């Protein structure tokens, strides 16, 4: 299928590398709403304009699908709805070096980077990013549009809510809930539930603020 990457930043380059391992992905290039990126060439693939260019690009290149390479969870969600309105499928980008148990459920538009391990019984929602080297142990539930950063370790039966962001190298012990739109700071060790919209940092993690929902 003919695929466009939405987002030409650093995460877009990660997605590009993943799709170059995918025999079902015929990559056309990128779109990005940052005008400074327009016309750039990234590893041989052009940035063809902004998302407003997509109706023309869909017709010109017979686009079938998009992968949204945007780290901001709510922006990624908004873009996913836009892609669907334009008639594009939300393609998964899963690196062949990820280790994923056979019964794991994976939603649409999910990006799973190199070195990820996802154990049995896990359920991954739509438009989730599971970044380089993250470990998702058994029976985790990852809500839609969450972002699990590089090197994160989630023990068994962790429930991570929609829009949650678990920061670089954080560890979450078993049987906990990370609430919707919560943020876990880089390197944090989470030993208790984190409520929705809260930001928790440190070892052990403590809540330092609450965001507006």
Question: Can you describe what's shown?
Answer:
By secondary structure, the protein is of the alpha/beta class. The protein is built from 3 helices and 25 strands. The chain has helices spanning 10-19, 54-61, 73-85, and strands at residues 2-6, 26-31, 41-42, 45-46, 65-68, 89-90, 93-94, 99-100, 105-106, 111-112, 117-118, 123-124, 129-130, 135-136, 141-142, 147-148, 153-154, 159-160, 165-166, 171-172, 177-178, 183-184, 189-190, 198-201, 206-210. The strands form 5 sheets. It has an 8-stranded mixed beta sheet, with helices on one face. It has a 6-stranded parallel beta sheet with strand order 8-11-14-17-20-23, with no helix packed on it. β24 and β25 (206-210) form a beta hairpin. It is globular, with a radius of gyration of 17 Å. The protein starts with a strand and ends with a strand.
Tag the structure with descriptive keywords.
30% strand; 213 residues; alpha/beta; six-stranded parallel β-sheet; 15% helix
- Percent range for helical residues? 10-25%
Inertia-based shape: globular
Low-confidence stretches: none
Helix count from the secondary structure assignment: 3
| Biggest sheet character | 8 strands, mixed
What would you call the structural class?
alpha/beta
**Chain-averaged pLDDT:** 97
Alpha-carbon Rg, integer:
17 Å
Secondary structure: number of strands: 25
